Amino acid sequence: MERPKLRDNKARKTYELYPLGAIPESIIQTIGKLMTYNFAIGKHDIDGEDWGDIFANAIDGVHLNSPIGLADVILDSMAWSVKSVKNGKPHSVKSVRVISGRCSPDYSYGINNPHDDIEKTGRAVLGIWNERINIAKDKFEPLRSTLLIRNPDTLEFTLFEHELQRFNTNDYVWSSNKNGNLEGRERNTNAHKFTWQPHGSQFTILYDIPLSAKRFKIKRPPILDFNETMSQIGFDDSWVTIL
């Protein structure tokens, strides 16, 4: 779809590879091909680093070794936070919990005991997340997250994305669960949205699977023969230098 004409006659100067959620089938095909290769060389799963490499290669982008804020993969002015979670039924699951980094209210705000004022701690956690969004958006726009739900046993996958955004801290209420972790819920619906763990400062966001999610599967390939592969690449003992 073409970019809409606006009355203020200002055009956005940022680059957009494709509209939000409309991941082209050609990219899905390339992702599937790269996944097949990973399994063919003997990998049993696709971890977060693998997924970052795969997604970056599929869009001809760059997988950063040192992310800028939440930006893991970049292409011109665009950036994606790249996440992957394992689930037994990726094609039918309705929501997923995604570890979204570590937020330390102690370090960032001087909150020594997070349970003294749970609401204050919850707002601090979201404040840290919002600042990470700001850091990434200083350099990249659009800023998205691409989430891969995977079952390496059945080789089934669901892929979806959304715009990364700041959260209005007043829209959520916080409480402590039986494990001492803090949970953030939407004020209007009471829907569980966040979990923050005091031990380790791990921050988790819960996402509903959108209608735009792409579901696909790949065929399990045979494992490449080691000796045959070494012969194909012309390996000999001179490639190894013992110092």
Count of individual beta strands: 11
Radius of gyration: 21 Å
Strand content: 25-35%
Distance separating the two termini? 59 Å
Across the major sheet, the strand order is: 1-2-3-5-6-11
Would you give an account of this structure?
Helix content is 24%, strand content 30%. With 243 residues, the chain is α+β, with helices and mostly antiparallel strands. The protein is globular, with a radius of gyration of 21 Å. The termini are far apart. It has five helices and eleven strands.
Task: Lay out the secondary structure.
Layout (H helix, E strand, L loop, with lengths): L24 H16 L7 H11 L3 E7 L2 E5 L2 E9 L8 E8 L2 H5 L8 H20 L5 E9 L4 E8 L8 E5 L5 E5 L5 E6 L4 E7 L5 E4 L8 H7 L11
Parallel strand pairs: 3-5
Antiparallel strand pairs: 1-2, 2-3, 4-10, 5-6, 6-11, 7-8, 8-9, 9-10
Helix pairs in contact: 1-2
Q: What labels would you give this structure?
A:
5 helices; 6-stranded mixed β-sheet; 243 residues; alpha+beta; 24% helix
Explain briefly what this protein structure is.
By secondary structure, the chain is of the alpha+beta class. The chain has helices at 25-40, 48-58, 105-109, 118-137, 226-232; strands at residues 62-68, 71-75, 78-86, 95-102, 143-151, 156-163, 172-176, 182-186, 192-197, 202-208, 214-217.
